[in-house]
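Suppose a colleague, Dr. K., hands you the sequence of a protein chain of 201 amino acids and asks what its three-dimensional shape might be. Before reaching for any lab equipment, you can write down a predicted structure in token form. Begin with the sequence itself:
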Amino acid sequence: MISASIENIIKEFNWDTIIKMYGSSHNSVIGFLSSEWIKKSSDHSVLDGAPSPFVGKGRKGQKNADILLCKGDKPFIVIEVETTVAKYLEKIDSIAAYLENTKDYNGIGFGLLVMLNNTNGADKYKHNWHDAKEYAVSKDIPIAFVSIEMSKADLGDTVLDKLKRRNEYYSWEISSIDYWVYGSDRKIIEGNLLKRKIEKS
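The predicted structure, expressed as tokens, is then:
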């Protein structure tokens, strides 16, 4: 699929819906993408926990993408959601395996890697997608990145704020959502889907 077509699909999702999700958000983002996709057409469906692209090799070494968005009777978008920077390249490899298995996954248009990053947290969560972009280009597959950056916000004394203090992830709020696309036409497109100010003392 060409870059412009991938970009159009990415922009169709209502990304501002997730700004009120707190925590590690991995499962929440998967739920958001799934429900958004199904709402768009009665012809759409979702395979939660995509079947492995490696068929007939047993459980050893098998890896499954998070979800597979389907269109009609074919798979359409394979999705990985990742919170740890060190695993980005591994997730790109996972997406590539689905795209390369044209026998079992005929119909996939592109892969989507959703990155959840804490901008002022531990290094393993900090936004760093330069290497991932270069790696994706070297794989030469149609792929999109959506980078969800989170900043630490101040918590007050409300009942909800007190509950948020009980988990280190709850005090992080989404500050921006950016995207990067590399399509079958080998064109790179990037832009912003959301930007907001996080209140700090």
